[in-house]
Each structure stands twice: as structure tokens, then as C-alpha cells.
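Researcher: Quick one. two chains, 986 residues in total.
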Amino acid sequence: MIRLHAVWLATLLTFSGSALAARIEAYVATPAGSPVADAAVIIEPMPAAPRARRATATIEQRDRELVPYVTIVQTGTAIDFPNRDPFKHHLYSFSKAKSFEIKLYAGKPSQPVVFDKPGEVALGCNIHDWMEAYVLVVDSPHFAKTGSKGLALFANVPPGRYRLRLWHPQQKSELAPRIINVGAAPTRLDLVLDIAPRIVKPKPPVEADHY
Amino acid sequence: MILRSLQRRIVLVFVGLLALVMALILALVTRSNGSIVAAEIERELSAGTHVFTLLIEQNQRQLETAATVLSADFGFREAIATQDRPTILSVIRNHGLRINAQVMMVISPERILIADTQSDALESRPFPFPELLPDAASAGKSSGFREMRDGRLYQIVLVPISAPKVIAWVAMGFLVDDKWARDLSEMTGLAVSVVRHRGNGVTVFASSLDGAKRTALSGALTQWPDNVTRALPVGDEHFQTIQVPLGHEASVVLQRSIEQAEAPFRSLQTVLWTIVLAGIVIFALGSLMLARRIVRPINQLAMAARRIEAGNYAEPVPSLPPDEIGQLAISFDLMRVMVASRENEILKLAYEDTLTGLPNRTRFLEVFSQLPKDSQGAVAVLNLDRFALINNALGHSIGDRLLNEIGLRFAHFLSGTGLVARLWGDEFAFLLQGVDQAAATEFAETVLRILRDPVTLDGQRFDVGGGIGIALYPRHGQDGATLLRRAELAMYAAKRSHNSVAFAGDAGDEPPHEQLSLIGEMREAMAHNEFLLHYQPKLDLVTRKITGAEALIRWRHPERGLVPPIRFIPFAEQTGFIREITPWVLETVAAHTAQWRKDGLFIVPSINLSARDLLNPGLVGHMRTLIGSHGIPADGLCLEITESALMEDPQLALAHLGELAALGFKLSIDDYGVGQASLAYLKTLPVHELKIDQTFVRSIADSPRNAAIVRSTIVLCHALGLTVVAEGAETTDDLDWLASNECDIAQGFGIARPMPAEELPVWIANYGRTAGTSP
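Model:
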């Protein structure tokens, strides 16, 4: 459920300002008021923006974790999965948006993985059950991820009509997207998203890692 | 009854004590066994329940672990992720086999069944156990016992399939069946059953119990409470039972068979019982043997005692081992010898006349009683003539020697062919078996002939005579006493009639039936006033005056006429009726006397008292009352007593005589000379008068010997201060002789016959006149 507290302000700014890109700050909290980290805030231009140039991203495997936990990419982005651990990992995804598998490997895989369909992709390591990461593939160049304080920042958003979407790996339900108008003035969006607590699978200490 | 026997008592005490001790031991063992078994069952059930809980938890963890591991399998996850139902179904079938799960289900995150090994149907339906999901979501696994569509119970483990996000749930069902129950039963040592309670119905899903008990269990468990330990009968067995809920109507029932737990103790008890019973049997036999050893000699002694009791002194008491009982046996044997010798002496005293050594009256009667029932013969009684006079004149030692000599003669004469006994004094009795009247007569005459042979003692010659009375049996009686009495009566009759021999029938006593009727009639006679008194006057030979009269009873029988006293007085004495006659006589005489004294006639009437009267303790008192009521002085009456009456109980007779004499009554000895009483003895009595028997007086004229006896008797009596009365003075000559020999008083036909009371005063008045005129 999204509540746009600054809709009127933003609209006012859009019409009164110049053609300069606007700065948008989005705050995502739970209904109880706690800030939500790792939430993806996407604003999709209407009509849809053309396919962007080929972009890249990196999701590292470090200290037996996939970092970062949530990665948001535009459709067509190629993601590298460099392995910084002294042992191999077996990366996989069974998600509809992108199903792939990089069997036991060390170092940097020979080819990045291209995420060419929008949607949510859950990543895991077959030999380390607790390793978990999400890639959200979106058809928009404007997206941001909330930090630990629940804040997501958009630096240059050209004024116009956008569809606002909110996503989180532990979201209890998918939210219906809302239309927003972005002007030149900076906009603050207060967003509410109900999420389940993240269940962190137990990670054995390194010393005891005798797998 | 049992306790009468010492042997049984010993055995009973021994065996009883053993049985008591054994019973206590048994009771103790049984009781402690019972509590041990109960505690053991309780302990086993509680331990088993604990083990069961642990096993279930452990089993669950293992299943969960296995399920978790399975769910993490990459290939498995990959297959699930394909979302292709046939693939999913085939992979869960395959992986189900890997971990031995009978049922596998895949559930979508939306809680819809994607695949189910139990059903190939394509329709989607919600997961039937959604309550398992929250736990599985938070803890990564959850499990529970659930009944599936096939009506069977499964242990279900639910785990998420993460890729790495939860893309589905997989539920694995492990069948809870009898094998499951049996495995747990083996591990817990308890019977394990899993049941479902729905309403009042109980369904058994699985059980380690066999068919029949399994069936019985569902009935027995109705309304059974959870977590409570209680005994439950199942079929023919009892189980300590606890029911632990597994959730969702399912419960596990854990049971320990009470019978099985008791079995070892039962066998112990069987062994104990065997030992107890064997012990009792051995003890019983042992104590029986011991008791026999103790009792056998006692029984032998008891048998010996019974022999002695029966009079058999010949067999000695058996000699026994020299213990206490042996000592007793020796003493007992000594006692037997002493008792035998003493009894011999007593028998001798009892059956033998000490003076002559002949059998006595008792022996005579006993010998008679031992005769065959239908035998016949005779009993003869001999009385010596004038023996009292000889005794008085020459002393007892001469008298005794005379009796002894005569006894020897009879014994010698009979020597085995018959029995002679000395009854008392100078009276002998003979028992003649198989003789008739003629033979008896002949015998009697032979006896008299032997008697007449003079006896010489200290150079002095004695001519002895006697009278014999004979009673024949069975003609005159059946028993010895009757025959002796009748023979005695016959003997007296013979003496009176101066015949030497008389038979019972001749003696005037009635045939038995006639006697009996007379006895019966006596009572009536008294009531009908048939008795009356006649008086025979007594003449004072000095003053020639009538100074007294003897009262003589008469019976005026309505049919028989006048019955003489000899016919009924002896029977009245025998039957005791005399006790009624005598008071009547006394009363009547007293009345007459009082009347006469009133009329101025002062005579002293004499009254005969029988032995019974004399021994009657009320006699003295009666006499005192009598004279008091009629107002006559005591010396206005004279009481006549025969010698034989004195002999029955001399001490009591003497005491009564003393009291009567002290009261002032005149006392007279009647029929002197017939019996054996000596003057010396009579001297000791408080009597005033002595009546010489008529047998002596009647023959004074003919027999100088009798005359001499009468004369000496008169002299001796006077010397002793006694008045002498002569009975049977029949003629004037007799009276003259008596008067000239200083006899004091005479009585007899020579003076007057007995007469009715009312005639007496007139007669006396007339006699006084004639006596006054004639010498």
C-alpha cells in the first residue's frame, strides 16, 4: 500500500519548475513505522522508455555471502558474479525471469549473465544454502534501493508521468503500481510496505565449515 | 472329637504351627510381591513412556533432518522449480523412496497442492494440513501425526523448498502402522497402540497387540482419560495403561501387561506353595510318627488298665522302654498285682462267712443268680433249735464252735454236690440243683439226721435239732432272695407246727398271684376300714389280774373273710405299706386306751413294731405326738419288737429304743428264742420285758428240755431285772407251771383268745370276778 504524502507538492513543483531533472527522495517504512532496507523503488516513465544501452552490474561472492543482497538492474543488463572466496560456489536461479546456473567455479566466470526479462530473480548457491540474493529486473532506468534508514534517492529524474512501483524480497504482497507526476522540484515520497522478517538461514562459522 | 486323641492333638499342634508360620511367610511374600510387581509395572510404564516420547522426538528429528536434506537436493529443487506436474510427481515419487516416505506432497506457496503421490488427479485442492505451515515457515520444518484420505495415520514432516526463496513446500508422510508400533514396542518394552478418539468411537490405527486384543482395545478405551495411569482389562489380560495425546484426535496408548509382570512372581509363588505343602506333608508324617511313638505305649497302658477294670488281673502290663512311660508301666504292673491280691481278700470277706468259712448269704444269692434260667431245684433253710439258749447258757465261744462243727459236717456231707451257706446266726441255707419235692424232702431228712448226731465240745455233749423250710424253684419263685424268704417262712412254720420239714406252699403263704392281689387290695382295705384290732389279754400271774393286752391286727376281707396277719403283714413289711398300717394301729390303740382309761380301765396294751417301723426316723416324734394328743402317759403303752427287727441296723434301732425308753414307753422283746439274740446282748438294750416264744411254752408239759430252758430263761431275766412274759400258755396246767416257776405274765388261749376291742372291758370285768372266785 502506497501513500503519497507529497503528491500535490511534487505536482506543483513539476508545473512551476523548468525542464531540469528533479531529485526524488523516497522513504519506505513498515506500517508500524520501521524503516525498510533493501526495498526497490522504481519509477517507470509513461510511455515506456526505450531500451537503454547495454549496462553491467556485479554481484560478488564474498565471505560466503552474495553481495549485495538486492540488486536492481534495467532489462538487458549483464551481471558479473566474481567469486572472492578461496573456495568455489555454485550459483543458480530457478526464477522465471532468469533461470541459470554457474556450476562450481572460482574467480570470475568467463561470461556475465544477461538479464533480459523483467522480473524478480532469486539467486542461491547450491553448496551454501544460506547464500541468497535477489535481482530485480526492471524496464526503467529510474530505480533506487533503500538503505538501512529506509531512504532511496533519485538524482536526475526528468519531469513527466511515471508509474511508481515498490518491491521487496520479503514483501507480503505485490503492490499495485501508482501513477506519479514528477516536476523539477525535489520530491519526497513516504511509502509504506508490509514485509515479513527476513529469515536468515544459519551460516556455519568458518572454523566449523567442514562441508 | 478329634482332640480326644492325644496322637491327633500332637499332629494337629505341630502341623497347625507349621501351617501358621508358612501362612505368615506366604502372606508376607505375596504381599511384598504384590507391591513389588505394582511398583515395577509403574516404573516400567513410566520409563517406557519416557523412552517412547524420546523415541518419537528423535524419530521426528531424524525424519525432519532427512526431509530437510532431501529438500535441499539441487536436482529435486530444480525439478520442483520446473512447475511441471508430471515431472514434480515423478521426482517426489523417486525422492519419497529415498527416505522411505509413503506419501509425498508438494504444496505451492499459495497452499495449494501441486502434486500428491496418493492421487494422480489433476484437480488442485488446498493442502489439508495448513496448520503445519507457520511452524515450517519460521523453523524451516514442522511435523505432526495426521490421518490421510486413505484413513491411515501418518507422521507428516513439512519442509520448505528454497531456491533460495521458498518456492514450494514438500510434505512427507510416514505411515504409522503395526510394524511402527511393534518396533517402538520392542524398544520401550510396552505395548504400543495408536488410536483415534472421535466422539465415543475409538479407531485403532496401529498396534503391537495381536488381533483379538487389538479388537478388544478399541472397545476398552472408550472415554479413557489422557495422561492417567490405570489398569485396563483388554481381552483376557490386564494392562497398566497410559494414553498420551499426539494431537488431532490421535493418541498413543502405552501398556504394560500386569500378567506378564506378575509371571516371574507367580512361578516363585508356585515354588513356595510346593515347598509349603511338601513341608506340611513331611511335618505331618514326622509328627505322626513321633506321636505314635509317644502314644503307642500309652495305648498299651490304657488297654492294660481296661483289662484290670474288667477284672482280668492275669495278664501282666507289657514292659516298655525304660523312659517315663516305662516307669509308669512298672508302677502300673505293681498296682495290678496289689489290686488283684486285695480284691481276692475283699472277695473272701464279701462272700465268705468268717466264722465257719462257708459261703455267706451274698455268695449264696450270687451262685443262685448264675444258675441256668430254666433250671429247677430247691432252696432249703435250716434253723437250729434253741441255739440262743445254748449261747446264753454256755457262752459265745461254745456257740461259735458248735456252729463251726455243724458247718464242717454239712460241707463234708455235700462236698461238691451242692452248696451250703451260713445266712446269719444259726441259720444255714442249701442250694439243691435238679431236685424235686421228694428228693428235697429226702435231703432235708438226711441233713436233720446229720444234725442229730450229737456234738461233743470240751467233753460236753450237745444234742442239736432244727427246722427246715424248703422252697422249690421255679415253683415258689424265680430269684434267690424270694426263695430264701419263702424257705425261711416255711422253716418258721415247720418250727411252729413242730414238724421238722415244711415246704413253702405248706407254710400258708399264698401263691404269688394271690399275694400280689392282696398287696394291691391292702391300700383299698385301709380306705374301706377293713382292718380292725383284736386284743389278747395278758395275765399277771402274781396278782391274777389282767394288766395288759396285745393288739393284733385283723383284716376283714369282703370276699375272703378274715385274713390272718401272717398272710399280709410280711408283704406289707416288704412293700413298705407297713408304714401306713402301723400309724393306723398306733392311732387306734391309743384311742382305745384313752377311752378305757376314761372308763377306769387301766391296762397297758402292747403294739408290735416291725423292723421298718423301728428304723423309721419319724417314729419317736410320732409316738410323742400320739400320747400327747390322746392324753395318755408313755408308760400306758408297750411296744413289742422282735429280735430280727433289731438285727437289721442295730445302731439306729438302739438309738430309737433309747429315745423311746427315755420318753417312758414300755419296751418288750417279742418272740424270744426263735432268733439268735443272746441275753447278754438284750441286757444292753433299754427294754423292760421279754416274751418267750410260744414254741417253747407250748411244750413245757411234754418236753422237760424246753421246760428247763424256759425255767433258766426266767431266772436269768429276773437276774437282769426284766419282766418275763410267756406266750402260748394254752392250758391251766401251763399257767400253773409258769406261776410256780415265777414267770411274771402269761398270754395265750389258756387265758383268752384275741377279742374285739369293745368286748375287752366286759371280758376283763367278768374275768376279774371269776378269778376272784376260782384259784
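Residues 103 and 164 of chain A are 37 Å apart (CA to CA).
Researcher: Thanks, that's what I needed.
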